[in-house]
Amino acid sequence: MLYEFRYRAPKTASEMIRLLDDHRDDGKILAGGTDLLPNIRDGNIRPAVVIDAKKIQSADSIAWSASEGLVMGNAVTINDVLRCREARELFPVLCDCARQLASHQIRNRATVAGNVVNASPCADMAPALLCLDAFAVLESASGTRQVPFSEFFTGVKHTVLKAGEFLEKIIIPASAAGARGYYLKLKRIAGHDLGIIGVLMVRRNNGIRFGVSSAAPTPVLVDGMLDKDGVDAAIVKVLAAIKPIDDIRASGEYRAFMASTYIRRLWQEIK
Amino acid sequence: MMKIKVTVNGLEYERDVAEHRTLLHFIRDDLGLSGTKEGCGMGECGACTVFLNGKVVNACLVLAAEADGASIETIEGQAGSFGLSDIQKAFEKNHAVQCGFCTPGMVMSVKELLRHNGKPTPEAIKEAIEGNFCRCTGYTQIIEAVLDLTGQGDLKGELKHV
Ligand SMILES: Cc1cc2nc3c(=O)[nH]c(=O)nc-3n(C[C@H](O)[C@H](O)[C@H](O)COP(=O)(O)OP(=O)(O)OC[C@H]3O[C@@H](n4cnc5c(N)ncnc54)[C@H](O)[C@@H]3O)c2cc1C
Asked: Which of A32, A38, A102, B62 is the most exposed place for a label (fewest CB within 10 A)?
C-alpha cells in the first residue's frame, strides 16, 4: 500500500465507538477490506486511521433463534453465511445471492456488513436482505437505532449511516424464514464479476417480491405482487421502479431488457 | 509501526511492520518468501492466494497488521522432505504449469477445495479456481490435474482443450 495510515483494532463495540468518535473526519472502518483496500490503493480515499472491526468480540457470530431470527455480527463473511446450516435451510435466497458474490477467496474475507455499507448498486447481498425484511442495527456515541434495509440505501455508495456510527449487526426476522426464490445475475464472463443486472424473485406467504441490483442508484425492492396479477404486470411494475444506466458494462436498454427476461424466467421457475 | 507475530509454514516470526503494509508485501519482501506472486494487487487475479488461519485469501487485500497472531501457509510450505506435494505432482504430471506465475495461488485454491470435497466435479473445480487467473497454460490442464489427483482421470477426455 503506497499510502500510509495507522491501524487500530478495538476489542469491544464501545471501544469501537470511541475510536470512531475520535476520528469522525479521518477514520475508516475496515471489515474484509475487499472494497476499502482497493479504494485506498487507487487513492480514492485517504483515511489517516483504519479501524479494524473484525476483532470485536463475537463480531463473527452468526446465530439463528426463533425469537430473534438470523443475527449476523459485523464481521460475518459471505462464506460464514454459506457455512451456516440454518442460513442454508431457512434462508436459501440469502445463500443464493451469497454464492454469486465474487470468488471463493473474496467470499472468505468479504463481510455482509461491508457489502451493504459500501452500498454499490451491484451489491449482491442487498436484494436478499431487502426481500427478507432484514434490518441493520447501528451503534454510535448517541445510542442504538434499527434501520430496515428498505430505508438504508440513499444513493450510489451512500447510506443512512452517519459519521461516528457503525453497523453492529444485521438481523433477518424469523418471519422471513422459508421464503423461496432464486437470484439471476448477469455477468460479462462465467467466472467472478460484478453484475450487469441481478434479479432476485422471492415468494413468501403474503405474495411475490423482487430485489434488483445494478439497475438504479441503489438496490431496489419491488413488492406487493400476487400470482393472479400475472408476469406482464410484474415486469411493468419492476421496470417502473428501476432506472438502469449506460456504463462500461452494458447499456441501460440492455439492462432493462435482461431484467424483464429474468423476471419471466423466474416467474415460470418459482411456483 | 507495530510488532506482529505470525506463524508461516509452521515457523514463528516476530517482526515490526508498517501499519499500512499488505500481508503480501510482508510475506514477499520482509520474509523473503517470493513464491507468492503479486499480479493485480486488487483481489482479481488470485496470484497472491495464501492460507490465513485455514482459509484461502488474497494476500494483497489483507494488512500484515490484521494477521497478528495468525497462522499462514504459502507455496513454500507445500513440498515436504520427500518432494513435492500430491497437488504439485499432479500439476507437473498433467502439464498444468507453463510460466508458473498463477501456480502458487492455484495450488492453494485447489488445496482448500480438496479439504472439503474429495471428488470435485469439473464444475466444482472451476468454481474453486474462479478467483485464480491463468493467462498461458489454459485452465483445462489445471482441471485435469485435479481430476487425475482425485481418481477421476476418466473424465479428462470430456474436457475441451482450447
Ligand atoms: C475482485 C473483487 C470482486 C468482487 N465481486 C463482487 C461481487 O460479485 N458482488 C458484490 O456485491 N461485491 C463484489 N465485490 C465487492 C466486495 O467484495 C463486497 O462488497 C464485500 O462484501 C465488501 O465487504 P468487506 O467486508 O470487504 O468490506 P470493506 O472493504 O472492509 O468495507 C467496505 C465499506 O464498508 C465500511 N464498513 C465495513 N464494515 C462496516 C461496519 N460494520 N460499520 C460501518 N461501516 C463499515 C468500510 O468503511 C468501507 O467503506 C468484489 C470485490 C473484489 C475486490
From this structure: A38
